[in-house]
Write a structure and sequence with these properties.
Strand content: 15-25%
Order of helices and strands: HHHHEEEEE
CATH architecture of one domain: Beta Barrel
Radius of gyration: 48 Å
Distance between the termini: 160 Å
Helix content: 40-55%
CATH class of one domain: Mainly Beta
Number of strands: 5
Shape: elongated
CATH superfamily of one domain: Nucleic acid-binding proteins
Number of helices: 4
CATH topology of one domain: OB fold (Dihydrolipoamide Acetyltransferase, E2P)
């Protein structure tokens, strides 16, 4: 009997052994699942402060462009209807802007502010001083205008000259004279100036 009981007790003792690893595996699985849930639960609150913290500005131009597009938060219109609606909205915005600008200009004109429109009438004719370089043509002199001005960037004196043809009705000016000419109506293909006076005669 003792021999029979021993095998039974052995069997009963052996029977829980296969079940024991399964129970341990289930407990280990439950513990792992609880750990995963515990890990997942604190991760969500941690993500919120990270999003709330100010991020560093993007370094590259491409990152700046992506950030600006994300800030705008609107996607590009893909269908023809969406594009047409976007065009209509932009046109309405432009019309409103132009109307307000027009009203501002009208209000400024009524108050006497701003630049008044130019009145039609004769303008002021240009006058130049120059040296006669040729008087061979009849009733025409060639005048050289010398210009010396300082260069805006390099501050060096830059000298240049230009020649023009002026009308001399009495053929009074000679080569080398210092003369004053004034802008006039076109008298020939190249003559648009008229002799006013001779300031200095050539020696």
């Amino acid at each position: 009997m003792a021999d029979q009981e021993n095998p039974e007790t052995n069997e009963t003792a052996d029977a829980p052994e296969p079940d024991a690893p399964v129970g341990e595996a289930q407990e280990a699985g439950a513990e792992a699942q609880a750990a995963d849930e515990a890990a997942a639960t604190p991760a969500e609150p941690e993500a919120t402060p990270a999003a709330a913290e100010p991020q560093a500005p993007p370094a590259t131009p491409q990152e700046r462009k992506v950030a600006a597009r994300a800030r705008r938060g609107r996607r590009r219109a893909s269908t023809p209807e969406e594009r047409a609606e976007l065009r209509r909205a932009k046109a309405a915005s432009r019309s409103r802007h132009r109307a307000t600008a027009r009203a501002k200009r009208a209000g400024a004109g009524a108050k006497g502010e701003g630049t008044p429109p130019a009145e039609p009438g004769p303008g002021k004719a240009k006058m130049r001083l120059g040296r006669v370089v040729s008087d061979k043509a009849d009733k025409t002199i060639t005048v050289r205008i010398d210009v010396a001005r300082r260069h805006r960037r390099y501050q060096k004196i830059v000298r240049s000259s230009t020649t023009l043809h002026a009308h001399d009705e009495r053929n009074d000016a000679n080569e080398g004279d210092l003369v004053r000419v004034i802008e006039a109506r076109p008298m020939s293909r190249t003559k648009r100036w008229r002799l006013v006076e001779i300031l200095e005669r050539a020696k």
